[in-house]
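On clarity, I found the account of how folds are encoded harder to follow than it need be. An entry of this sort, consisting of the sequence and the corresponding backbone structure tokens, reads as follows:
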Amino acid sequence: MRALSVITALLVASGVLAGCSDAPASQDAAGARAPAGPVTMVVPFAAGGGSDIAGRAVADGLVSVTPGLSVNVDNREGGQGAVGYSYLLGKAGSPNYLLATETSLLSLPASVEVAFSHRSFTPVVKLGDDYTLLVARPDSPITSCADAVAQARTRRVLAAISGAMGPDAVVFSQIRATTGADLDTVPYEGGGESMAAVLGGQVELASLNPSEVIGQLRAGELKALCVFAEQRYTYPELADIPTSLEQGVDVAFAQFRGVIAPGGLHPQAEQYWVEAARRFVDSPAYRDYVASEFLQARPAFGPEFGAYLAHAQGEVEQVVSR
């Protein structure tokens, strides 16, 4: 409830509650068939986290396969992602904007009264799936996910998450529902801030994507307690990390990574971006991105991505409403 109060205040201040959305800010671009001039890749979280890494990688990848294209990255964090999505909502009809999206696109509308849903935007490409790790400092007395659950039953255990209503929050909601343990989550604006919080000792645990934390794991600055997945990663750097299911914690959740465009695009503009995304996925840049971010490569384009979002929305709503 504390998290809901904080995010509601942020949304009111940002003017993104239902009924307060901005009017389309790109009327001059409405009906355009292709972007004209520089394109903006909106990242709805702070620099340094998984969404920022994804947005910059895709921006560079699209440029590499599309002659003449220029893409700038614009971090518009706030409201646990809602500020960035609301900004894109105001660009309806313009092909000059993209947004690096993930599961908060689904969990925010399921949790808070916002003026958008996934249907407000144009699905371009689902890049892959990203499973989170539960990590702690090496000197932490918590030794596993199962141990974290056990200790949370007897004392207060603080865990950093990226966004009060994001995919990390979904994971901890599943933990509460399946184990009865209530780890006390502290929302931050992105993985970079979550990382700093656990390294600095403000929290004991953090839920982070492998790409966000691999450097600290290699350096021995953090230890991985588990991965919230059905199966272990096959990447050599992560293969020894046990799953939550192995430890008796029946929780698994895949965060998707993808790209969306504003709603109301001309069909040819939508086709332009889907074709550009296909070229990117067929390129070495995509394979390098997937490998460097430790993703499970499961691309989907346009309407297929839209169908995935519709199905996933129902799953997220079931978890968040518990």
